[in-house]
Design brief:
The chain has about 170 residues and is of the alpha+beta class. The chain has six helices and eight strands; from the N terminus they run αββαβαββαββαβα.
């Protein structure tokens, strides 16, 4: 972190890293809190009273290096917080990523102009072809059915998934 970086910069860094591994953040819930643990610069008494820092008194002092503060304003800079090298920033709460979200049949968000490739499967158990990946996982593999790849990396020109059409779909769209 640079002296004028803030927790908002850390938040963007986390979002960028998860985007790189193809699991973008869908939402930061209201219970998300940022804490800084470790060596913190001594803040003059009058400045400390202005900030709304929660010192984590419940931590075992043998396991914590320095003190702990809760960052209430994510725009506050590293310099203003007094964060020194060797500190750790911890994020607690609910962060929902793409992988945490319920699966959706490709029919829900399909746009033929996006040119995306889709993998299709066939269910031996249901005697059904042209099943999208989400339906394959939730409605067939998830139900113990025998499935096989049918058509990989296909660019459809319409929202094709026969799982819904044949009333085999368990996904709540």
């Amino acid at each position: 972190m640079q002296p004028f970086d803030s927790m908002n910069d850390i938040k963007r860094l986390v979002e960028n890293k998860l985007e790189l591994v193809n699991n973008p953040i869908e939402s930061w819930e209201n219970d998300v809190e940022f804490y800084v643990r470790g060596p913190l610069a001594k803040v003059p008494k009058q400045e400390e009273e202005k900030n709304e820092w929660d010192i984590d008194a419940g931590m075992d002092s043998e396991k914590v290096l320095g003190k702990t503060i809760k960052v209430d304003n994510l725009a506050t800079t590293r310099q203003k917080l007094g964060i020194e090298n060797g500190s750790t920033i911890e994020i607690y709460g609910t962060i929902k990523c793409k992988s945490d979200m319920p699966k959706k049949c490709l029919k829900v968000d399909f746009d033929k102009d996006d040119g995306l490739e889709y993998n299709y499967f066939k269910c031996i158990t249901c005697k059904l072809k042209w099943i999208c990946e989400a339906c394959n996982e939730c409605c067939h593999v998830g139900q113990g059915h025998e499935v096989q790849p049918f058509l990989q990396k296909h660019v459809p020109d319409w929202a094709c998934c026969y799982c819904v059409k044949k009333k085999k779909c368990f996904i709540k769209s």
